Amino acid sequence: MKVAVVGASGAVGQEFLKVLAERNFPLDELVLFGSGRSAGNEYEFRGKKLVVKELKHNDDFKDIDIALTSAGASISKEFADTITKYGAIMIDNSSAFRYDSDVPLVVPEVNPEDALVRPRNIIANPNCSTIQMVVALKPINDLSKIVRVHVATYQAASGAGAQGIAELETQIQQVAKGEEPTINKFPYQLAMNIIPQIDVFLENDYTKEEMKMNWETKKIMHTDAEVSATCIRIPVARAHSEAVWVETENALDIEVVKAEMEKLEGLTVLDNPSQKVYPMPLFVSGKDDVYVGRIRKDVSNPKSLTFWCVGDQIKKGAALNAVQIAEWLIKKGEVK
Ligand code: 2RA
Predict the structure, then answer these.
(1) How many CB atoms lie within 10 A of CB 142?
(2) Which end of the chain has fewer CB atoms within 10 angstroms, the N or the C?
(3) How confident is the model at residue 336 (pLDDT cuts 50, 70, 90)?
(4) Keyword Oxidoreductase on this protein (predicted)?
């Protein structure tokens, strides 16, 4: 098995290396690709030094079985044919193909079978904020069809990549010293602040990040349920949090919901209010699972319930989800 990581020097690229090593992924060879700028960078994998090759339109992908790509949408679009033309399966973390009808959008806990139909040999990895929410929604939807979802997200700085977390750290130091904070990546100072904008505003006054949660949830869950999201950037290093309100066709018993959530592999229930037990980003950073807590009936609507969920957005929200798709394909004999 030969695996490629495209965008190896980025935050998600580096996480791919960690996750592949951690899970003892069954590969014989790992090849790293990157831009001209990152070509030549060296990283260690299973005790061996690997050098990043420049991504080019050539035959470098001839023997690759699986390519894990996270180099931005324009690179994914430009190189998709080069990557897949000899049969490599491209599992793409960018937004380039998520809404194409001939590209499945997959979260292994929710819709793994969709990965079997991939006419272009491309599988898209959803946006991080959607992944963690649909994992938590899956057991609820199995009990009673979800009619609508309201969600407010609290997204970590590292969702904006390595530069995002570096900017937050610099700003925290600057603010502590009484200096003017440097602002590049985020629209405003993030340290000591929260910003109710992630990505650009669209015509309906939602941001693209918010509409991704609507579009992607429908595609992954095969549902017509509408999702109304407000996505907020908060000064947290890693792991996104979400407050979610879910309306179902039938009223649900909260204890049954909790029991079903507990059964889903990949979802951990941390919910004991009297003991102050609930998930928080500081403690979920670096973890594989999506964590849920504060699960309760919505006092405003008998057919609605509400919960809080936290997931490491670089791990389950990106690299781990892609690697789990690859593992599922291997298990199903889809990788020759
Ligand atoms: C963010 N969801 O947190 C984005 C990254 N895909 O900025």
Answers:
(1) 12
(2) C
(3) confident
(4) yes
**Alpha-carbon gap, residue 110 to 316, rounded angstroms:** 13
The gap from C-alpha 251 to its chain's centroid, in whole angstroms, comes to 30
Is position 236 within any domain? Answer: yes
Residue 12 marked ligand-binding: yes
11 marked among binding-site residues: yes
Q: What is the pLDDT of residues 280-305, one digit of tens each?
A: 999 999 999 999 999 999 999 999 99
Whole-structure pTM over 0.95, yes or no?
Answer: yes
Order the strands of the 53-54 sheet from edge to edge: 53-54, 29-34, 2-6, 66-69, 89-92, 122-124
Q: Within a 10 A sphere around the Cβ of 118, how many other Cβ atoms?
A: 20
255 and 326 together in one domain = no
What is the Å distance from ligand 1's center to 135 Cα?
Answer: 17
Question: In total, how many domains does the chain have?
Answer: 2
Cβ(311) – ligand 1 distance below 6 Å: no
